[in-house]
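Form 7-S
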Amino acid sequence: MRKQIAEKLEHFLELGGIRKEILLLIISGAALLASIFNLLPLPFNPAWAAIILCGIPIILEAAAGLISSFDIKADVLVSLALIASVCIGEDFAAGEVAFIMRLGGLLEDLTVARARAGIEKLIHLTPQTAHLIQNGTETVIPAEQVQVGDILQVFPGETVPVDGVILEGRTSVNQAVMTGESLPVDKEPGDEVSSGTVNQFGTFRMKAARVGEDSSIQRMIRLVQSADAGRAKIVSLADRWATWIVIIALTAAALTWLISGEIIRAVTILVVFCPCALVLATPTAIMAAIGNATRHGFLIREGDALERLAKVSRITFDKTGTLTCGIPQVTAVLEAPGFSGKELYAAAAAAEQFSEHPLGRAVVRCYCQSTGKSCPAAEQFQMQPGRGVSVTSDGQRILAGNREMMEENGIHLPDVLLQAAEEQLKHGCTIIYVAISQTIAGCLSLSDTIRSESSGMLRQLSGLGAQPVLLTGDHENAAAFIASQLQISEVHAGCLPEDKLNRIDSFQKQGQSVCMIGDGINDAPALKKADVGIAMGGVGSDIAMDAADIVLVDDEIRELPHLLALSHKMMHTIKYNLAFSLALNFLAIVLAISGILNPVVGALVHNAGSVFVIIHSALLLRWKFRFDGEGAG
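Output:
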């Protein structure tokens, strides 16, 4: 409890610090406006407010880095420009530089403040209580007090408190939190169940096997935390080059002063070498690219996500809800001899109309959509957890369920029907057998359907140099069938959250940058571990979205190639901006050394470079990706 309170307090303090930064920036911006238009009759330049509020922290941070570890970054160069500008009376230039640098720091702080949101929501999924059975008596105890070997009872609608094995009862369990698959899985005595999964229908008793920190849901929380901590932060290009720029600027200024004897030339060199254009080169391009991405349905949650995305060589996909619609559909109606497809379909809809099972609801929905009719009247509905349902309709008893249900009720399944069903199972489908008055009428085949845009989207991503990989918790037949339909060559089926994370880790150890695209809670560790995580916003869970760097708000996966191409275009823009700003600075130095450029003209050149960088970056706002079949945009 104390640990949670401490984390909440730390989170509050972080938010308080961000609010303070915003307030200081507002004051500094107002002061700079007052300086430009001479709005306040003060005995000093109002820009000094920006210098003090934004500039002094930059100077102190740069000095601390130099003294403690001789770490030369862009803030050292900015500090030199600040001091030089103040020395020659260019107060506004000093305040402007400090304001721009502080604004960039705020954008970074805002992304850090969100870091724990996904983990906090994941913790809320942890079961709080368990029903302990001792000497025939049921006692409700805190879930953390469950011991290995304890006998527990789990009721319909409850979350499984710990990992274990079913001893008594049959049910269907929603395992989406672990596997990502939306369809519940039938369970019976001897089957394993995982903590965090949801018991949907029948009551069962289980024996606890893994409890506390060893349970599945706790392992997933640790995976998300470790993946988040292990991802390295991108170092900006400006910081990478800052050491050499500082050395060149100081050397040029010192030599000019020694040779010419004019300190004004040396100070002018430091002023024109002020890295405003260099500092603006990256954030302006990123902001413009983020604006472009927003227009195409992407919410960019991490400032450097597009920079990382540009380096991606593999894109790993979850299957359900990402490449597929995530909603089961009736894909085949296989009637037995003596029955018609219409008769079979109507009987199945009559039996399933009162069912709460996702497969039953899918049968009813598809029947009504395809026929335009309502379900036939039925009564005496009964549900057999882990088996199926039964009703009476038009005086006939109808059974709809799995093969075990048919066999337990003595219903013969002809070989021809079993063979047809087996072919459907190879394609990853689920089969519902239907019997009318103790005679098999046939079966329905249901499966998730591929999004119409998935194939073209994957082809375009391959053209852009990103290899698609399928990582799914579904079984091998379903995964192989979907992969063959979409021409994905690398498939990994039956993946639990830890398996997906380990697969991404192995790619990264091979020197490959990986993007993960998913929608479920089970994808959260992989989304955190990947170099870039993209969550489906429409069908995805809040936890997946909090774990991701980018959220696809409207689930239009056809826009993914645009996002990847945009990241490449953004990096080209940044490099052009940097090259231009460096070239302009070196030219200004040459002119300052020769005495042609004085401090006033130098400040104009400096501002002109910043304006050019901003305009060039702004072109990204309206940029559109056009696929030519070879990956060019």
